[in-house]
Amino acid sequence: MSVKAKKHLGQHFLKDESIAKKIADTLTQDTYKNVLEIGPGMGVLTKYLLEQNLEIIAMELDQESVIYLNKHFKNKNLSVISADFLKFDLEKFFNGEPYAITGNFPYNISTQIVFKTLEWRDQIPEFTGMFQKEVAKRICEKKGSKVYGIMSVLVQAFYDAEYLFTVPPTVFDPPPKVDSGVLRLRRKENYSLPCDEKMLFKVVKTAFQQRRKTLRNSLKVFNLSDRLKEDIIFGQRPEQLSVSEFIMLTQKLEKDEISTNN
């Protein structure tokens, strides 16, 4: 594949075999034997996934890469699909069985990949892969940090997030201008929410859009009752709240809305 094509895709292809093997080894395989690899390129990671006796679907948008994979990886455990992950109906994968997602994700759509994974979390117990380091750190960050934000809270509401290791630009073709980071998300045993999911997403996004303000000010759109405004939690800023505290905050807003309407 030409360098021009790679840049167009927003993807930097991994050329270091040892890093590829480390990424393949991030999969625990505790509750699944199926894996969806996004953006396999020329298959440097695919090769090590196949060594683990997994059923693999490799999804690649670039036609040159699809042709290469089909030519060089003839394996009964591998299916190559030419498709856009963000537009694909994930219900068609693996006949409803659980599967993990992994890959060296294109930087320009990596966060969209994560949000789509959240939508299909019932079928996806594990998610590993490589991001721009800044994005990987943000996803795994805990409260109190300047980079803790919307993705941190929404991902960690359903998954335990772990930053695993940093990858330098020199192992890619073409090399990016920044470091990359590999993470692992493992779905929580009890990942159902004790609050309305859409409400939680709205609360988190609204709060962090004005992250320097206290919640009392940033959440005015929820028409807080005078009683609720006095709650101590609304004197804090969004980065001061843990995931469980955001869930509790959402519950308070739900109860307040019900009592106000009644």
* Whole-number total of structural domains: 2
Q: If you average the pLDDT, what whole number results?
A: 92
What CATH architecture of the largest domain would you give? 3-Layer(aba) Sandwich
- The arrangement of helices and strands along the chain is HEHEHEHEEHEHHEEEHHHH
Structural class: alpha/beta
- Strand content of the residues, in percent? 15-25%
Low-confidence runs of at least 5 consecutive residues: 1-9
Q: How many distinct beta strands?
A: 9
Quick one: overall form?
Answer: elongated
What do you see in this structure?
The chain has helices at 3-9, 17-24, 44-50, 63-72, 110-119, 133-140, 150-156, 197-209, 215-218, 226-229, 243-261, and strands at 13-14, 34-38, 55-60, 78-82, 100-103, 126-132, 159-167, 172-173, 180-187. The strands form three sheets. Strands 4-3-2-5 form a four-stranded parallel β-sheet. Strands 6-9-7 form a three-stranded antiparallel β-sheet, covered by helices on one side. Strands 1-8 form a two-stranded antiparallel ribbon. The radius of gyration is 20 Å and the shape is elongated. α3 links the parallel β2 (34-38) and β3 (55-60). Mean pLDDT is 92; it is low at 1-9. The chain is built from eleven helices and nine strands. It has two domains: 3-187, Vaccinia Virus protein VP39 (Rossmann fold, 3-Layer(aba) Sandwich), CATH 3.40.50.150; 197-261, Helicase, Ruva Protein, domain 3 (Orthogonal Bundle), CATH 1.10.8. It has 262 residues and is an alpha/beta fold. α2 (17-24) packs across α3.
